[in-house]
């Protein structure tokens, strides 16, 4: 399997900035991609956010398998984390966040009240890896375009405070990965959703891995989408070659253009054209039963 790593210099700086800013905030709102809720969580955030209230937003939940979204909600709830299913583009789920913020920060609001501090806004830091939809979330949540959005990982560079209303202020932060993926499956899944710069990966290898997963977990999906014959017993290259013929991806003459077909499959997955797909399921954690 290919080795996926991406940690450009500006991410080190962004992490240092977050370490300084964490003192100013009451709450961490962490966006994860609902198709890979565990792999799209930066383990450094748990370390940085110790003793802070936490909310996890399963973003792009419309692209993920609805049954599996429920399993992930249960998993995070069992870990004592507040979790909301959202689709930042359409605005689905955003209305419920304000209430969840109040719930997550109950103790802080109560402490303020006892000290006679009324109506001090909750200050929340919005975090997440590149391309998980932080800027789109903030713009939708605030109802106005207050941050730059882009579908290239790493568009948000500096930090900015956004006053949403009297009770909530958001601090946007750049998307950061972590220096080394211990598990290469994590790097692979991040590459599949577009959180790793496409320029440093081999799109054909990515497509083979995706095809391999889909033939195993979502039977019949590739046949229906690309109008190809049964994939049973065929290797990933043969399947991609069939997609070339089905989609008329040719180089000179009748030579199949594997790279073009690979790009079609990966883009179809990323944009939800293959249907609602989740790439990973929560694993049972023996430490959960102790809490």
Question: Could you walk me through the main structural features you see in this protein, from its secondary elements to its overall organization?
Answer:
- This protein is α/β, with parallel strands linked by helices and 291 residues long.
- It is 39% helix and 12% strand.
- The chain has 11 helices and 6 strands.
- Strands 3-2-1-4-6-5 form a 6-stranded mixed sheet, with helices on both faces.
- Helix 8 (203-217) crosses helix 10 (236-246) and helix 10 (236-246) crosses helix 11.
- The radius of gyration is 21 Å and the shape is elongated.
- The two termini are 36 Å apart.
- The mean pLDDT is 85.
Please name the defining characteristics of this protein:
291 residues; alpha/beta; six-stranded mixed β-sheet; 6 strands; elongated
Brief description of this entry?
This protein starts with 8 loop residues before the first helix and ends in a 21-residue tail after the last helix.
Q: What is the 3D shape?
A: elongated
Quickly count the helices.
11
N to C succession of SSEs: HEHEHEHHEHEEHHHHH
Q: Report on the biggest sheet.
A: 6 strands, mixed
**Straight-line N-to-C gap:** 36 Å
Derived from helix and strand composition plus strand pairing, the structural class reads: alpha/beta
Q: What is the strand content? A: 5-15%
Estimated radius of gyration: 21 Å
The average pLDDT value, as a whole number, equals 85
Number of strands: 6
Helix content: 25-40%
Unreliable sequence segments: none
The largest beta-sheet arranges its strands as 3-2-1-4-6-5
Summarize the helices and strands and which ones pair or pack.
Elements: H1 9-21, E1 27-33, H2 43-48, E2 53-59, H3 66-78, E3 82-85, H4 97-104, H5 106-114, E4 122-127, H6 134-142, E5 160-165, E6 168-172, H7 184-193, H8 203-217, H9 221-226, H10 236-246, H11 258-270
Parallel strand pairs: 1-2, 1-4, 2-3, 4-6
Antiparallel strand pairs: 5-6
Helix pairs in contact: 8-10, 8-11, 10-11
């Amino acid at each position: 399997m290919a080795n996926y790593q991406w940690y450009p210099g500006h991410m080190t700086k962004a992490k240092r900035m977050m370490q300084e800013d964490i003192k100013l905030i009451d709450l961490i709102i962490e966006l994860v991609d609902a198709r890979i809720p565990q792999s799209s969580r930066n383990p450094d955030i748990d370390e940085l956010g110790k003793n802070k209230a936490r909310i996890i937003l399963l973003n792009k939940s419309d692209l993920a398998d609805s049954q599996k979204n429920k399993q992930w909600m249960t998993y995070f709830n069992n870990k004592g984390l507040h979790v909301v299913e959202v689709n930042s583009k359409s605005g689905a789920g955003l209305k419920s966040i304000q209430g969840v913020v109040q719930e997550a920060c109950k103790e802080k609001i109560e402490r303020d009240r006892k000290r006679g501090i009324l109506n001090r806004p909750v200050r929340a830091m919005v975090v997440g890896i590149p391309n998980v939809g932080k800027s789109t979330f903030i713009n939708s949540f605030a109802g106005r375009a207050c941050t730059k959005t882009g579908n290239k990982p790493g568009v948000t560079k500096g930090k900015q405070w956004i006053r949403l209303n009297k009770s909530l202020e958001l601090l946007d932060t750049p998307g950061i990965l972590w220096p080394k993926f211990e598990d290469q499956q994590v790097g692979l899944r991040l590459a599949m959703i577009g959180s790793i710069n496409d320029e440093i990966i081999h799109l054909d290898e990515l497509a083979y891995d995706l095809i391999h997963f889909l033939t195993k977990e979502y039977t019949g999906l590739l046949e229906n989408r690309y109008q190809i014959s049964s994939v049973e017993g065929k290797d990933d290259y043969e399947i991609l070659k069939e997609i070339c013929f089905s989609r008329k991806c040719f180089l000179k003459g009748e030579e199949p253009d594997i790279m073009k077909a690979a790009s079609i499959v990966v883009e179809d997955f990323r944009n939800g054209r293959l249907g609602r797909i989740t790439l990973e399921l929560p694993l049972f954690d023996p430490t959960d039963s102790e809490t």
